[in-house]
């Protein structure tokens, strides 16, 4: 496999402005197949905006974003096709309250005609088992805890067989006792070789699971490296200051 084919995400000089507010100030990042990249940094530094530019929930102001070989900065690129390959899990799980857990997980594959109802139901059941919720298939989202809902949201994203999973602070809204189960599911995914970009405040997770940690501040990538480098020997004063506050 050539190097280019081995890259899942290639971001070049990405700038995103809202009016006169330049939120991303020329970001460069390459994520390889099977790589787990954790993004850390203070609130307001542009982490969510960056993730949203990867599936064009936000339109980049300038720069180039290539995901799964598709140049998504090119207006001719079929974004529906690209998005099918990108799973996204947010802080606030938005399951459909009127559908059962199983129906939530099978919805997209059926709607997008990727699977028959029978096949989708069978796979949804096995994905629910993967996230430890096999017995909740017929429950409604309102009867679940936040951590269980978030694990269903992960199963729902996986049902589309994504090549990349993007997580935006998936555990930040959870009660502390729920966090571990969700992180365990994410860790298992990483071990199975999923390419993942995870914005997180869970430094323990980043230390243990990330292949690479990226520290963002003020719309810049200030520093990146393997977890040991970033957590034990941060070079940038901003990284040092941030880690002093959170560790
Ligand atoms: P983080 O996820 O690191 O906390 P964000 O990407 O959410 O940071 O936000 C970065 C900056 O962009 C903030 O100053 C925020 O106010 C601004 N911002 C984010 N989304 C919008 C938007 N839709 N319109 C205007 N400003 C925005
Ligand atoms: Mg954010």
TrEMBL record:
GO molecular function: ABC-type amino acid transporter activity; ATP binding; ATP hydrolysis activity
Domain of life: Bacteria
Swiss-Prot/TrEMBL keywords: ATP-binding, Nucleotide-binding, Transport
The name this protein goes by in its record: Polar amino acid ABC transporter ATP-binding protein
Organism this protein belongs to: Loigolactobacillus coryniformis subsp. torquens DSM 20004 = KCTC 3535
SMART domains in the record: AAA
Listed InterPro entries: AAA+_ATPase (IPR003593), ABC_ATPase_HisP-typ (IPR030679), ABC_transporter-like_ATP-bd (IPR003439), MetN_ABC_transporter-like (IPR050086), P-loop_NTPase (IPR027417)
């Amino acid at each position: 496999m050539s190097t280019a084919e081995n890259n899942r995400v290639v971001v070049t000089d990405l700038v995103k402005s809202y009016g006169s507010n330049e939120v991303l100030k020329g970001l460069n990042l390459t994520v390889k197949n099977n790589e787990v990249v954790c993004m850390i940094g203070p609130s307001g530094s542009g982490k969510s905006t960056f993730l949203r530019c990867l599936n064009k929930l936000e339109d980049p102001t300038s720069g180039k974003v290539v995901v799964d070989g598709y140049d998504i900065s090119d207006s001719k690129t079929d974004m529906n096709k690209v998005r099918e390959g990108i799973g996204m899990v947010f802080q606030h799980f938005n399951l459909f309250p009127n559908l059962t857990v199983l129906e939530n997980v099978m919805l997209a594959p059926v709607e997008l005609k990727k699977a028959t109802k029978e096949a989708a139901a069978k796979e949804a059941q096995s994905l629910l088992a993967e996230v430890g919720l096999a017995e909740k298939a017929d429950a409604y989202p309102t009867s679940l805890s936040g951590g269980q809902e978030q694990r269903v949201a992960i199963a729902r994203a996986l049902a589309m067989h994504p090549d990349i999973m993007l997580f935006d602070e998936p555990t930040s809204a959870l009660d502390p006792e729920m966090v571990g189960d969700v992180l365990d599911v994410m860790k298992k995914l990483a071990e199975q070789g999923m390419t993942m970009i995870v914005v997180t405040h869970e430094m323990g997770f980043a230390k243990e699971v990330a292949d690479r940690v990226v520290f963002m501040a003020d719309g810049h990538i200030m520093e990146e490296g393997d977890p040991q480098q970033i957590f034990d020997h941060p070079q940038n004063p901003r990284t040092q200051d941030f880690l002093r506050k959170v560790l």
